[in-house]
Structure prediction request, 374 residues.
Amino acid sequence: MSVMSEKTTISLIKADVGSLPGHVTVPEELKKVATTNLQKMKKNKTILDFRVLNAGDDLELIMTHKKGVDNDKIHGLAWDTFEKAAKKAKEMGLYGAGQDLLADAFSGNVRGMGPGVAEMEITERPAEPVIAFMMDKTEPGAFNLPIFRMFADPFNTAGLVIDPSLHNGFVFEIWDIMENKRVFMNSPEEMYDILALIGGKSRFVIKRVFPKKGGKLPPDEPVAVISTEKLYKIAGEYVGKDDPVAIVRGQSGLPAVGEVLEPFAFPHLVSGWMRGSHNGPIMPVPFRYSQCTRFDGPPRVIAAGFQLKNGVLAGPADVFDDPAWDYTRQKSAEIAEYMRRHGPFEPHRLPSEDMEYTTLPKVFKKLERRFEKI
Ligand code: F6R
Ligand code: MG
Ligand code: MG
Prediction:
């Protein structure tokens, strides 16, 4: 018999298994299929709690359990849920039905099979605030700027300056997703080196953030985790953007919820948007605006705020559903308009290196034989 962990695991697993119209949003019917399946698994105690949301055309499963990260039962449950939703999507004639289920059959872990995954196993504090961020029409590197600002920028996070329990800073785990390597770096000591890497957001991505040793929190349990799956690397061709997700803990020795959300007041430019081929501003929106309509965008982020207790979720609070974000949304709409005026020109269109992973090389291929030497 397996020993139940004292710790709680939060697993946020997502996939695009069909949407309407085109790549805009996930209809209620699909969320209902997912909810029914997860409800069954909550009843039989495979999971402790769950929520089903959508970020644009992505179906998002937030699950809590005692099985740790990379658990085959939990990943199998997610895969099974996506398959059932994909079946419904096919029946309904939804667009891209089953799109992100890149493998024919589940083989123990959804990593490398299409879905995106952010998971953390933690020792719950007496009160545990958790924010789940879910983006659509962009790539994992879109989280570099906001996560850096939450945990390392004193102009964003007042606690880094004025709260002794944050003053020592944090450890960043950064992945080179081209070379499949990682490095752990300390902030603030190595802040410039961290930025030297993560400013190149299509290659270097923040995977996790940890507390430093000697503080209130266990240094081996993440306080933030981001999904880093790259679809084109799995499929070997363009099949849509990766649409990353992240889980961030807050308060009591960590950035306050307001400091966790604050970076999103700046609608920074991310790559993705139409055909995964354009730079555009990320727009923080409430759940009801989680649908990408203008030029299949602009890229969006929703944030679901919870309190976690003994693996049970209270919430979500739809934390971008506040007029305090209207200015950002307006700014983002203005930037979207400005970028759109460039049409097919860079830097609205992605730089050539990044276009390698889109459908553009197929167009170049056709032109190849027309070129003559000069
Ligand atoms: C972006 C995205 C959409 C599609 C676009 C073309 O991540 O999913 O912008 O790339 O709508 O889609 P297809 O090729 O399916 O017609
Ligand atoms: Mg889609
Ligand atoms: Mg999507």
Observations:
- The two ends are 73 Å apart (CA to CA).
- The mean pLDDT is 95.
